[in-house]
Structure formats: structure tokens, C-alpha cells
Amino acid sequence: MIHQCCGDISLNDANRDALPITVRNVTKTYGKIYALDDVSLDVKSGEFLTLLGPSGSGKTTLLMVLAGFTRPDRGSLKFGATEMIRKPPHLRNVGMVFQNYALFPHMTVAGNVGYPLRLRGVTRTDLAKRVETALETVQLGGYGDRTIDQLSGGQKQRVALARSIVFEPRILLMDEPLSALDKKLRDRMQIELRHLHEKLGRTTVYVTHDQREALTMSDRIAVVNHGRIMQLASPQELYEQPENKFVADFIGDSTFLTVTRQGAHHVAAGVTLKTTRPVPAGDDLLLMLRPERLSLLHGEAGEANVFDATVTELVYQGESYLLYARLPDGTELTVRGAMRAGTFQTLPAAGDTAKLALDPSDTVIIAGGED
Amino acid sequence: MAVTQMNTGPDIDANAGGLRTDEQRERWRLFGLSSPALLIVMVILVIPTGWLFYISFVGANGSFSMENYARMLERKSYARIFQTTFQVSLITTGLCILIGYPLAYFMSQLPVKWANLCLVTVLLPFWTSLLVRTYAWLVLLQRQGLINEWGMGMGLWEEPLKLVHNMNGTLIGMVHIMLPFLILPTYGAMRAIDRDYLKAAANLGASPARAFWTVFLPLSTPGLFAGALMVFILCLGFFVTPAILGCGTVILVSMQIVSNIELFVNWGAASALGVVLLVLTLMVLWVASRFVRLEQMTGGGH
User: Fold this and answer.
1) Within this chain, do residues A268 and A312 fall inside the same structural domain, yes or no?
2) Whole-number Cα distances in Å, B111 to A28, A345, B105, B118, B191
3) Which of A160, A266, B28, B181 is geometrically suited to a Cys-Cys bond with A101, CB 3.0 to 4.6 A?
4) CB atoms within 10 A of CB A172
């Protein structure tokens, strides 16, 4: 069934397991700008890893290095044990979903999905079968004869996905594949992609600038900024215990208070902090305050850290409220709380004073300084 | 409730009338902008063509007659002239494709800044008169022309090559003049091809050559067809360049029309030729329109 063609690419039943990716010291400069600054990264076999970062952070450049479209200045890239850094893209055998799908407009859906199989010399009957299977995997069975411009955005996305998995690559790359879809469809596709990943078990590298998308889908997230990986961790770890201010700031909304060391104590805004979490070394420390981890204190403080503040504004947001408050030193804080019938009427109004409580288990002190 | 009561009031009705008038006035103003052009098209295209059509059916004695058309069927020379015209047009188009497609491809791969510079040089010939360009070829190609002098001077060939006053010269000149008409739409179509298509092809396992044949070429052919069609149709009625560089050895329909008028003062025969050429051109366009979207010839659409 399987013919050798076009050099090294072929469908090989023995090689269907996922592959780990090893990136070592990859640097790419454009003039004086470092798009990638000595990046090293290990993607485990079968893992769903997301590269998350603002635009221009280098996340897409890294993905393009993996796909072979960007030639780095130096470094090493291994799929499994094989060095790939100088392999041209067409010999890398990785599946890729492009941001704008890049479906060939002069071919039908089946033509697009069958394209990688035709290049690999798959026989006609086998090809039709595999194309249909791939289309069924993305819930587009029977769509083979459609032309590309007859498809909706979501359907194009699925066809692009089918095309990238039909030749059973052991590595799957995705470049913001959901960014062109509307929010509802995007939410659904996130779950679907996640399920598909669990089913196929391919090593997947996913690029996005959407933190919620990253948190929803990933096994691990690499936060990228200025061509460097700021932190590589599980979604939960990343949100709960960020290693630096950039990560704390980029993921979720946070306010920061400067923490000073006074002997064995840590003090922020005049409050001596109680925390159950490890405190990083060094003197340059920040207290990270997430709006949903702060609460309005009505009764006794108990173990919580309490900040006295003046309410500046109260905003009704349906499922929750947002309360803006100012500390005596002028720092603006935000408190988000869940809302039930009658909650809103009990909240303090602008101008009132309020006590804001932060549980010691939510008291996260991070290293400050420049990222 | 208040809204439903109001929508039949006298003010509302008056406004509806006013809005309709505004709409019509705007449309007429827009139409007014195109009226000078429409007038010119009427005067210099529709009326003369109609008149040509009419006199092609007028015989030597001034009455209705098919003799102008009958003559075309009788005389072998006419068939030969039409044959030559189509042959020359076809070869010119073919050569334009061979030269123009790779050039357009090269330009489409350049950064936009450099490609625009190339585009200016492609368009540069349009800034000089057709006649000047044609005579420039004569200077280059004739027996004692620059090319023959250099060639013989460097010992590349002994006898002067017959480069002009024959089919060679006609084709060289016509290809040169026609090339921009092929390059522009082809280049436009190529520019419009998303680079990601080629990346996707490579990612899916296509070598650069394979990606070109399976993705780039099919996506650029509509532009190439449009350009080729444009060249072919322009060639069918081309006069100046083939007349000067062919020097009477390559006779095209357009030259026969001129000689019918200037030599034989036979407007009827000339008109009939014109009508037949027009009909043939329209037929070519009609056939082509089934394969190409014609708006691509003018750079519109994609």
C-alpha cells in the first residue's frame, strides 16, 4: 500500500507513536532584534504544550522554526533522536494548522485532505478511505465534494485540521487556529481540539495569545516574551504561583504591592503578611493580588491579611461585581465577587471604607524586578 | 406603542417622498459623471462600427450586395492572410508566456519594494511612442544594425543575419510590445496567492518543485490566461509594428485593410475585413470567457 517517494517522507506504521521535541539554544535575530533568544524547551511525547505570549514575543517564530519555515541563526532541534534543524519543511513530516487555514482554493475538501497522501503515493482506494476517516474524525463526514468557499469558518478550520492529521504525523503544530472564529464557536472548538488530542495522542505545540485558551487546553504552557521563555509550567501552577511579574501580569488580572522585608516578616501597604506559600529569596519582592482572591470582610478577620481601603467605584457585571478601591498609599485594587440575588444591595458604595481580606493560602509573593 | 401610532403621520409620509427624490437625484448625478465618456464611446466606437458594418454590405455599384464577403471566400489570399494573422498572434502569445511567466514569477517573489521597481521598468516602454520603439528595433535588427555589427565584430557569425523584414523581426517586435500586457495580470494573480498556501504545501510534504506545479501554477493560471487572451486579441488587430518590421513580407488582416483603402480605395472590402476580424475576435473572447473570468484582463477581481 505504501510507496516510498519524495525522499524521506512516507507513511510508516511502525512510527505512529508520538515524538518528543527537544529545542536547545535556538537563537534567531532580525538585525538587532532577538526574535528568539537562546531558547531551550522540552516537549514531552504526546504532550499538549502551548506557547503563550503577546504579539511579537517570538512564539510564532519558535513554531516556524519547528515547522522549518524560519531558519534560526544557531541551536539544535530534535524530533525524538533525529536532528531536524537543517531539514527542509517538506521532509519534517509534521502536521500544521495555519492561522488562516491555508486551504487550497483550487481543490475540493477531499482534494485538500488527500493532498499529503497523494504526495506520499498512497493508492487511490486507500486514499479515499483515509480522507473519509479523517473527515469523520473532525465531524465532516460526507463533505469531501464541497469546494472550499462553500464552507463556514468553523468547517474550514476542521478541514485544515483533517488535512494536518490525515498523514498521521507524529507531531502537530497549530498557529492560533481558532483566532478567526467567533467566541462561542471558539469555546466549543477548544474542547473539541482537546478531545482530539486525547484521542490521537500526538505531541502538539499550540500557539496563542489568548490566556484563557491556553489555560483551557494545555498540559503545560510556555509563556514567551522578548524571545525568551519566561516560565514553563502547568496551567494551574502558572496561575497560582507565577515565577515573575511578567507571567503574573500576563495571565489573569493582577495588582502588585511592593513587599519589604522587616526581619523575618514581609510587609506590604503597612500590613504584615501571613502566607502559607514559599517566598522567593532577594529583597525585590511583590505581592500579587488577583481580584477574585480578594474579598470584602464583614465579620472577624481570622487568619486573613486585611487591607483598609476606600471604595472608588462599584460596577455591576451580571454574574459578578467589580469593586475598585484605593489603599491609603494610593494603590488601586480591584475586587471581584460572585453575585446572587440581593448581593449587590449589600455592597459598599463609592466613598465608603471597606476591609479587603486575603487568605494566607492566596497570598502569593513573587520576585519583582524587570522580567 | 407610540412608535406604531406615529408611522402614518403626515410628516412621515412627506419625508418618505423626499428621501426617494434624494435617492434618485444622487443616482442621476453619478450617471452625469460618466456621460462624457459615454458620449465619446458613442461617437468614436458605436457609430463608426455601425457605419463600417453598413458599407461592408454595399457593392461597387452602390446597392446592397454580399460581394465583399464573397470575395473573401473566393480568393485564396484572404484565407492565407487570416491564417497568418492567427499564426503570428498565436506564436507571439506563446513567446510572451515563455518570457513573461518566469519574469512575473521572479517579480512576485521579490519584496514589494523591489517588485514595484521592476513593475515600473516593465511599464517604462509605455512612456515612449509605439512608433519610436518599433523603429528602435529596426535600428537594432537591420542588416547593418547594431546586433549584426556586434555579432560579426565579435566573430559570432559571418554573414548578416536576416533579423528584420521577415517573420523574425515581426515576432521580436510584437513580443516586445505585448509583453507588459501579459506580465501585468499574471503578476497580479501571483501576488494575490497567499504565501501560506506554499508553506502549507511544503508542510504537507511537497518539495518546492511539487508545490509549484500543484499549487502555485494552478492558482496563477487565471491571471496567465487573462494576460494571454489580452495579448492574443491585441495581436489580431495589430498594425504598426508588424507593418514596419515585417515590411510587407508578413501580411496580416490589418495591413490588408489598409491596402484595400489606400491602394484600391475599396471601403467596402476593407469594412468587410474589419467586420470579419471583429466577429472572429468576439468569438475568441466568447470561447475564452467560458474558461477565464474576463474581468481579470483589466486587473479587477481575483
Assistant:
1) yes
2) 21, 62, 12, 11, 11
3) A160
4) 23
Q: Say yes or no for a CB contact (<8 Å) between A67 and B201.
A: no
Q: Examine the domain organization and report whether A217 and A341 are in the same domain.
A: no
- Name the DSSP letter for residue A261: E
Q: Identify the domain containing residue A19 by its residue range.
A: 15-240
In a domain, A250, yes or no: no
Judge whether B197 is closer than 8 Å to chain A, CB to CB. Answer: yes
Same domain for A97 and A207, yes or no, is yes
Residue B218 C-alpha, separation from nearest chain A C-alpha, in angstroms: 7
- Is A267 within the bounds of a domain? yes
Nearest residue to A172 via CA among B230, B204, B102, B229: B204
Does the global pTM surpass 0.90? no
CATH of the domain at A111: 3.40.50.300
CATH of the domain at A322: 2.40.50.140
- A313 and A211 in one domain? no
* Domain stop point among A207, A240, A273: A240
Residue A185 contacts B, CB cutoff 8 Å = no
Is there a domain that residue A1 lies in?
A: no
SS3 A232: strand
**Cα radius of gyration (chain B):** 27
Length of chain B counted residue by residue: 302
Nearest to A167 among B199, B205, B219 (CB): B205
Q: What is the ipTM of this complex?
A: 0.80
pLDDT tens digits in sequence order for chain A, 371 residues long: 344 344 444 444 434 577 899 999 999 999 888 899 999 999 998 899 999 999 888 899 999 999 999 999 999 999 988 899 999 999 999 999 998 899 999 999 999 999 999 999 888 889 999 999 999 888 888 888 899 988 988 899 889 999 999 998 889 999 998 888 888 888 888 888 888 888 888 899 999 998 889 998 899 999 999 999 999 999 999 998 888 888 888 888 888 888 888 877 877 777 777 778 888 877 788 888 888 898 888 777 778 788 888 888 888 888 888 889 888 888 888 889 888 887 777 888 888 888 888 888 888 888 876 54
**Total domains present in chain A:** 2
Same domain for A196 and A278, yes or no, is: no
Collect all residues with Cβ–Cβ distance below 8 Å to A114 and sequence separation of at least 6: A127, A128, A130, A131, A166
To which residue does cell 454574574 refer? A319
| Rounded-to-integer distance, Cα B253 and Cα A230, Å | 75
Shortest alpha-carbon distance between residue A96 and chain B (Å): 7
Domain shared by A123 and A195, yes or no: yes
Are residues A149 and A29 both part of a single domain? yes
Q: Looking at the complex, report in whole angstroms how far the Cα of residue A316 sits from the nearest Cα belonging to chain B.
A: 30
Of A68, A100, A163, the CB nearest to B204: A163
Q: Are residues A79 and A196 both part of a single domain?
A: yes
> B26 CB contacts (<8 Å, ≥6 apart)?
none
